[in-house]
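Form P-L/3: holo structure prediction, ligand NAP.
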Amino acid sequence: MTTLRPQSITIVGAGTVGTHLATAFHNAGHHVRFAARDPHSDKVRAATETLSLDVVALRAASKGADFVVLAVPFAAVHDTVSALGDLGESVLIDATNTVADTLPDHATTIADVITTANPAAIIVKAFNTIGAEAFTSPTIDHRPLFLPIAGDSPAAEQVRQLAEQIGFDAVVIGDRTAIRLLETFAELWIHMAFRTGLGRNFGFARLKRAAPQQ
Ligand SMILES: NC(=O)c1ccc[n+]([C@@H]2O[C@H](COP(=O)([O-])OP(=O)(O)OC[C@H]3O[C@@H](n4cnc5c(N)ncnc54)[C@H](OP(=O)(O)O)[C@@H]3O)[C@@H](O)[C@H]2O)c1
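OUTPUT (holo model):
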């Protein structure tokens, strides 16, 4: 089990993903705050008051942050990342999916869109492959759900430790070239949840056969 020292985490987007991740990271002992387009809106206040978390403007999201989590609709990704400004050494965790939207011609992943808005961003894709409820309930029948992660090294390993600490079977599957797989994996989860009648209350688990005895 990971013993990670408390990290400073800013979550951009106080919606479904943002509030579940904030709860999970807060409960794990991390310093969590939100960044929002309008930090003073009733919607943001309602989403954050349960945990009494601070809310800052987008431009201040990376200040003092080890991680900045992007949890906004795909249509808002480019403008939101632009509004974040210089991220410095903060790792950008991208939890977004296109869902019904399509990538622009120049992009093969959402990471490409992020890079267009902020070429220097350190990007790790994570928390996009499962319904947000799992962030606060990452086990089923006492087994941790599988959470694949991909992106820049060594940040991807740090994000893996964060995910493991909140209860996932988290695995770094590769660098930026593997991000496309995570976005496709999310399409599979969404398809199974909403097109096959399975519903949201499921996740994937990883089984590994023990090495055969010699
Ligand atoms: N829901 C899931 O189970 C799930 C799971 C994995 C990944 N994802 C992905 O995670 C991202 C967030 O999903 P979500 O379900 O958390 O969405 P959501 O509940 O609609 O929340 C989105 C948040 O983004 C903010 N936002 C910033 N710019 C926006 C804009 N231009 N238009 C609309 N909202 C804007 C909103 O803040 P304001 O208060 O300022 O409006 C809102 O708090 C999406 O890319 C989604 O595909 C979702």
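COMMENT: The pocket of NAP is lined by residues 13-18, 36-38, 41, 43-44, 71-74, 76, 80, 95-97, 99, 128, 131-132 (CB under 6 Å).
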